[in-house]
Amino acid sequence: MKSNRKAKRIISAVLCIMLVALTAACGSQPAEETAAMFKAGTYTATTDAHNGELNVEVTVDENTIKEVKVIEHKESPGISDPAIERIPKAIVDEQSLAVDTISGATVTSDAIIVAVTEALKQADADIEALKVKKEDEKGSKETKEYTTDVVVIGGGGAGLAAAVTAHENGAEVLVLEKMPRLGGNTILSGGAYNAVDPGRQSKQEIEDSIEKYYTQTYEGGDKAGNPELIKTLVEGAYPGIEWLEGLGMEFNDEVFTVLGGLWPRAHKPSAPLGTGFIDTYSNYIEENDGIEVLLDTEAKELMMDDDRVVGVKARGIEGDVIVNSNKAVVIAAGGFGANVEMRNQYNEIWPDLTNINTTNHPGATGDGLVMAEGIGANLVGMENIQLLPMGDPETGSLSGNIEQGVENRIFVNKSGNRFVDEGARRDVMTQALMEQEDSFMWVIVDKHSYPTEDTTNNFNETIAELLEQGRAYKGETLEELAEKIDVDADNLVKSVEEFNKAVEKGEPDAFGRTLFADKLDAPPYYAGGRVPTVHHTMGGIEINTKAQVLDKDGNIISGLYAAGEATGGIHGTNRLGGNALADITVFGRIAGENAAKEK
Ligand code: ADP
């Protein structure tokens, strides 16, 4: 077929040369008179994408790709949406397979391109020709240059806290965000924010103190965190809540213990997940002049003037972007949980992490760390990678998790036996899970967690929805549940009985568990499967308590601040659940304020 088409093209070219003297309009011949590029028709093709199969439908006439549609996929909403919307359109607009992938959604982008390629093969297309990049057009895109006071790299929780605070302190701010949306991992997080809160905690009769919070954070990270940074974190956490409330964000009245948080001091935003944080910042940005956000714009390099950071080189959809900073640059580009190569480069603790999924959004690729190290910044604690025992078995996402706080659920393995203190540190629970058959466990809850089937989990999913999707199972008795999830019924019943005895006693049980609330004795019972998943990278750029970036000799790098998951040295070997949102808010604010005050 291919050689036929080539022959047709050669004939057409010869005819064209012969006709040129007569018409001088060879190039403007109607399309239908040139050789056909495609066998007209509608074709479908399927390929594997991030979360499963992705199907496309491609319609072509003899010379044009008329339409590309993604007709079915299992990609994560929000994260993959930009690729699903933009890649098909780009292929049609550019009549090419050499379209740019969408930052942070490259797997989905690539999958669409692969599936469209397969469909076009069926239409006898010259795939090699369609893959040639039209360099002249790309090259003609012009460089845009901006000058502002503070440049923030990354529009997640840390970056937006920094941007808003810098603005509150009189600076003009520009935020570079490589994804087509703001929010990063922050918007996908459970939203739990630890702080010692005398108001809320005393109403619930929870004893707590800054010292206790400090000790749990320091010891929970095996004393590997920097005491000064931890002190800054625990002292700044509650003022951070008050500041957010001042910006209009709402938190529930009651605090709770989040998974691996070790103590009931987690504040739950009233809005689902991390949306409350990002909406609060977005509203501020909309309502106030002086913060510009460039989406789809990936920071590539820090610009230096001698030893001082003076701006950022970036790449946007429309071409290169240069942003000069009058005062400072804040790196808030998150961690590297979604970068398998980097995980493997630094991992010293876990077995091979290549095939473990992640809760992270695809943009968590450690760009900020690489950029900072490129100009001499010190990276600390890079081997400390946090896994959770709470990943969706198919995607690694936290969605579908049926637990409602730590006190009301147990974990059992495929034999129906408990295997760990379910109130333990995250690394302890994950390590124990990895020792179970297939590294798989069931979370078991009862009606206390889901009084009705419309009750939602932390991800705003009702238990009814999860049952329907086959992501949760229900039994009116433990025996019925055991049968549904194919575990030994006697073992499951015994596990629950032993647990209930421990709840009655309120003393540490055989696994050392001390966090209890209700017994598991109210049918119906529910089970949801979970596996280990990469969640947070504790290592990163070394900073001081002013969020200034330090070089390998401990000197301050002028004009450069960092905050959030991009930084290291705060959480040590293990981050307490609920400490990330406190961290990004506290240090985001510090970075923003100090960046704005630079001369
Ligand atoms: P944190 O919790 O520290 O704020 P997040 O993951 O919530 O971290 O946010 C980090 C943000 O930085 C994400 O939105 C991510 O897409 C963005 N980001 C990562 N790398 C770059 C880059 N090179 N240029 C611009 N933005 C980036």
Q: What does it look like?
A:
By secondary structure, the chain is α+β, with helices and mostly antiparallel strands. Helices cover 33% and strands 22% of the residues. The chain has helices spanning 2-23, 81-94, 106-122, 127-130, 135-139, 157-168, 198-203, 210-220, 227-246, 275-287, 340-346, 367-374, 426-434, 463-468, 478-485, 489-505, 579-597, and strands spanning 41-48, 53-60, 65-72, 144-153, 173-176, 193-194, 251-256, 266-269, 291-294, 298-305, 308-316, 319-331, 379-380, 385-391, 410-412, 441-445, 473-475, 525-537, 540-541, 548-550, 556-562. The strands form five sheets. Strands 4, 5, 9, 10, 11, 12, 20 and 21 form an eight-stranded mixed beta sheet that branches. Strands 14, 15, 16, 17 and 18 form a five-stranded antiparallel beta sheet that branches. The chain has a three-stranded antiparallel beta sheet with strand order 1-2-3, with helices on one face. The chain starts with a helix and ends with a helix. 51% of the residues are buried. The structure holds adenosine-5'-diphosphate. Residues 104, 153-159, 176-179, 184-186, 298-299, 332-334, 363-364, 367, 564-566, 584 line the site of adenosine-5'-diphosphate.
Question: Which tags fit this structure?
Answer:
globular, FAD/NAD(P)-binding domain, single chain, alpha+beta, five-stranded antiparallel beta sheet, 33% helix, 17 helices, Sufe protein. Chain: A, 3 domains, Flavocytochrome C3, Chain A, domain 1, binds adenosine-5'-diphosphate, eight-stranded mixed beta sheet
